[in-house]
Amino acid sequence: MKFKNLSLLALCLAIGFVSCKKDDESEVTVVPPRDRTEQQAADMDSLQKYLQSHYYNKAEIEAALPNVGINDIKILELTGDETVPDGYELLETAVGAPIDTTYADTEYQYYVLKINQGGGYNSPTVADDIQILYEGFTLGDVVFDSKYYPDSNPLDLTSLIPGWRFVIPKYNISESFADNGDGTVSFSNSGVGVMFLPSGLAYFSSATGSIAAYSPLVFKFELLQMGQNDHDGDGVPTYLEGLTVNTDEDTYADAYGYLYPRYDYIDTDDDGDGVLTKNEITVRTVKGASVEVVKSEPLDADELLLNYIAKNSEGEFVGTIIKLYDTNANDIPDYLESDIKINYSL
Questions:
Q1: DSSP string across 314-336
Q2: CA 108 to CA 102: how far, in whole Å?
Q3: How far, in Å, CA of 30 to CA of 222, rounded?
Q4: pLDDT tens, position by position, 210-240
Q5: What is this structure's pTM?
Q6: Do 297 and 317 form a contact (C-beta atoms < 8 A)?
């Protein structure tokens, strides 16, 4: 699935329509996007009607836990005077209250059907790569994209629609996986759910492929694995460099000569002092027989254990600790202060 990049979405604020004049010249009529708050109200009405008219196979899912996947989730529509069959549950009841959030200066609500938290010891941030299976469909139950089997192509959450970045980080990756010996891999106890998103947390005014503009969308998902991103390779993970669903920080404001700002997460010298960020911090690793051992590692002043712990080929758990020096003790790391130019790699 090719999701729109958040930065690009901010630029795509209008859709142009061309009409021909009698003198064969063309003019472009710009139609502004709808008011986000008004569209959100309309989308919530549509989502609520969908939840009130669809049910899922609750009993089958619960019997298969914790090893369920998107192919196990069956969402069906009530027809006529039909009532919800035994072993199924109405989605409106299953999802509970809507979840509140803010995006693009607008108050949004969305729904999530939580199937399984996932048994892994890591959860992705809004900035990380994810291995995930999914099925996306409209409120008309038309599937527009899907991924049913694992492959070697992770998705970067920074390039996905906003709704994914609100939902996916709330789940854990798989507890374990096994090579089946036939070129396939099986995952156990993955993070599984269904998200019901208003258009403002999806593509909003942009028509994409078979998805009409202002379409609320539904996604089944099965979170398998993750990888922590450091987009600029400066040693500071992207999730620590001011990137959120709503905000991109640019400490040095070095957009001069560039079409877009050089945000911290893609800037190798965040404070513009001539000393690369990777040389203004130090990094060390810690190993242990369990995640708990790694997390209990004593930390020196200004050190931080990153929130991603991986297993190496020897079966040891490995964590990364970075030291964010704060020479003048003002709670601002040296790599973000241009008047402090200490190269710790020398």
A1: TS-EEEEEEE---TT-SSS-GGG
A2: 6
A3: 40
A4: 999 999 999 999 999 999 999 999 999 999 9
A5: 0.87
A6: no
